[in-house]
Write a structure and sequence with these properties.
Layout (H helix, E strand, L loop, with lengths): L1 E4 L5 H9 L3 E4 L11 H11 L2 E4 L2 H10 L5 E3 L9
Parallel strand pairs: 1-2, 1-3, 3-4
Amino acid sequence: MNFLVDAQLPRLLAIRLCELGHNSCHTLDLDSGNRTPDSTISAMADNTGAVVITKDADFLDSHILSGHPAKLLLISTGNISNR
């Protein structure tokens, strides 16, 4: 399975998903890093069939209103450390 992990979540999540045999990258690995616009993240995920993993409710709004990103995992937690 392919995953694209958004900026509010730790890079370690993407690393751990790779260790478990999945294809995964963090926004820090993209050319614009954590400054990559949500629309670009959605388009990249849709083009590769990746699931966007995020805490950002803007992705949920976009998913509901326009269907992009097509696959979304919204994490709902309090503040978590990057570790």
